[in-house]
Write a structure and sequence with these properties.
alpha+beta; Cathepsin B, Chain A; two-stranded antiparallel ribbon; 21% strand; C39 family peptidase; Peptidase_C39-like
């Protein structure tokens, strides 16, 4: 992460983007996301910045978007739950009376990112794969809505949307380089995908960051 003369964050292809998962123990992600292990059994939960285990277990499955932001902000980024607390103040997540969590809501999220972190965040309610590559060429990173099964791209996509990944650049063959907050191993947490393999998972919306 670099800063300009005004102290604002600059996100560029030359910056080293770290890999983070929305679950505190990367080696347990596969067991957690496929139901073999309860989130509350994550031994590293406190490293997320959550104050209590119950808070961690209830929220970690909803924080893919903030994990993308945390990666984009670089090594000096706040903890995941510090970002959660900040985003809540802007209404980027909502909760029903029964405790059901909804979000990430793009517009207040973008406002939060601009106001608090000094990053230019633009909401794209209609976005094509070609437009993603154009945004990358402008030096932007792009949080995109995809189906969570993008972590198993060798299988047919079951749908589109519901999960956020961070696209940080182009792969050597002209595809996309992405960081997946719920990747189940090193190769799916930082992955290169061809445009044709990516498209069936993509919901056509996202938020670009610069």
């Amino acid at each position: 992460m670099a800063r300009d003369a005004g102290g604002r964050v600059s996100l560029c292809s030359a910056c080293q983007v770290p890999s983070h998962t929305q679950f505190a123990s990367p080696d347990l992600v596969e067991r957690i996301v496929y139901g073999e292990l309860d989130r509350a059994a994550d031994p590293a939960w406190a490293e997320s910045g959550a104050v209590t285990l119950d808070d961690y277990a209830r929220w970690c499955g909803h924080l893919c978007g903030l994990t993308c932001l945390r990666m984009a902000l670089g090594p000096s980024a706040p903890s995941l739950f510090e970002l959660r607390d900040g985003a809540l103040k802007y209404g980027a997540y909502t909760e029903d009376a029964d405790g059901t969590i909804h979000g990430l809501v793009y517009a207040p999220f973008a406002e939060y990112v601009r106001d608090v972190h000094g990053v230019n965040a633009t909401v794209h309610r209609h976005l094509t794969v070609a437009e993603i590559t154009a945004l990358l060429d402008e030096g932007r990173s792009v949080m995109v809505s995809v189906h969570y099964e993008i972590r198993r791209p060798n299988r047919p996509s079951p749908g589109r949307g519901g999960h956020l990944v961070l696209v940080t650049g182009r792969s050597a063959d002209g595809g996309l380089h992405l960081h997946n907050p719920s990747g189940i191993d090193a190769g799916t947490r930082m992955a290169d995908m061809s445009l044709s393999d990516f498209e069936p998972f993509f919901a056509g919306r996202g938020v670009s960051l610069r």
